[in-house]
Write a structure and sequence with these properties.
This protein has 398 residues and is an alpha/beta fold. The chain is 35% helix and 15% strand. The N and C termini lie far apart (56 Å). This is F-box domain-containing protein.
Length: 398
């Protein structure tokens, strides 16, 4: 067996093996997938070892330090495996403060495509290094911005350096109290011509109108997906409502958004104020939590799909869901068919054919409602994308 392996290693061209190994890594996206291959023969080990750095994810400060030390030692031998790194991620278990070697690690990763650090405060220096080294290549950026003084505003301005981004996820934290600094960076608007997906999140209750005004000054001609996770939007500026903080952004990009996701429970006038600006939206999603009051009344006519997140682990929330669906069933019949899909926000997967067994009380409420809603041209669907009438057709005798 060992002779067969040795023969295969000798006869196959190295570039063929490298292509195979790269294909495996692109599919698995984890270093452990390539380690068994390195044990076959010396040729495979030499070819596969640099691929260990292709998709990196860290959950501890120790691992970050160890990786940086490895990159530095290899550079002393004129080896630069960091040039193969395409994705660099830091999980929520990393320390809150910026790790002192992250910016030095970035020196070795000039072709980075993905950078995710949504729960780690990186510091403006690391932002600057990321923009300097990876700005021309990065396509997916997920970061947290904020800090004392002008730090948050400077970090927001540095986002403009990532000119080829396709996806941008910004978590805003401790920014509102320093919002005055945004007036000094107005000329650093985000000119992101290739951006398709924009996600904005803030876990804290702070005034963000200056930040949203800054974002609205940018250029996003390719943007089609907008997601807002703002459970504590506010406090509003004097004489305004929380939803008005978003008005400049919706005025800028609302007409081009095809998919819209929102968790803005405290922006009660959002549907009447903002939804009319979503003139071409096809999919609207409300994750778990209370949707804005009156959202269905102002749902854009172009909407084809409505997704509602539901906590199926709690029977206490069933009345609220049923009440919402009853309200929809009593409304006017829609001219355009609407797909209303309930998506579970827990490990349970909602499907009509198992609902009667797992949640009999809820099934007794939802099944009649699904029939009433169908009469209004609204199809109540499960996570398999089927409404109850489709299951009836499948089990009916030929």
């Amino acid at each position: 067996m060992s002779r067969v392996r040795a023969s295969v290693c000798r006869d196959m061209k190295e570039d063929v093996w490298l292509y195979i190994f790269e294909t495996i890594m692109d599919k698995e996206r984890r270093p452990s997938a390539i380690i068994p291959l390195m044990c076959v023969c010396k040729t495979w080990k030499n070819l596969a070892e640099p691929l260990l750095y292709q998709y990196l994810s860290f959950s501890s400060a120790t691992a970050i330090t160890r990786c940086h030390r490895s990159l530095m030692l290899k550079a002393l031998r004129d080896q630069f495996p960091g040039a193969r790194t395409r994705s660099l991620a830091f999980s929520h278990t990393c320390p809150d403060g910026p790790h002192p070697v992250i910016d030095r690690m970035l020196h070795y990763m000039p072709h980075l495509l993905v950078f995710h650090a949504p729960h780690t405060k990186l510091g403006t220096g690391t932002f600057e290094m990321l923009a300097q080294v990876c700005g021309p290549s990065l396509k997916d950026l997920e970061v947290q911005i904020g800090g004392d003084g002008a730090e948050g505003a400077l970090q927001a301005a540095l986002v403009s350096r990532f000119r080829v981004l396709r996806r941008l996820h910004i978590c805003v934290s401790e920014l509102g109290r320093n919002s005055a600094f945004f007036q000094f960076i107005g000329d650093q608007a985000w000119n992101l011509q290739h951006l398709e997906i924009l996600l904005l999140r803030s876990p804290s209750k702070e005034a963000l109108s200056a930040f949203f005004d800054f974002v609205s000054k940018g250029s996003f001609p390719s943007l089609t997906c907008l997601a807002l996770d703002l459970p504590w939007l506010g406090p509003p500026d004097v004489g305004t409502t929380p939803a008005e903080a978003l008005l400049s952004l919706f005025t800028k990009v609302g007409s081009q958004i095809a998919r819209f996701t929102a968790r803005i429970p405290h922006a009660d006038n959002a549907p009447s104020l903002l939804f009319p600006l979503l003139t071409t939206v096809r999919t609207v999603r409300f994750p778990i939590g209370r949707p804005p009051q009156g959202f269905f009344e102002h749902l854009p006519a172009s909407t084809e799909e409505l997704l509602l997140g539901v906590d199926f682990s709690s029977d206490e929330r069933t009345p609220a869901l049923v009440g919402l669906l009853v309200e929809l069933s009593l409304g006017e019949q829609r001219r355009k068919r609407l797909s209303l899909q309930l998506t579970s926000e827990t490990t349970y997967r909602f499907e009509w054919w198992t609902l009667g067994v797992t949640h009999p009380n809820m099934a007794g409420d939802l099944m009649p409602l699904s029939v009433w809603l169908a009469a209004k041209n609204i199809l109540l669907k499960d996570e398999a994308g089927k409404w109850i009438g489709q299951y009836e057709e499948e089990v009916s005798p030929a």
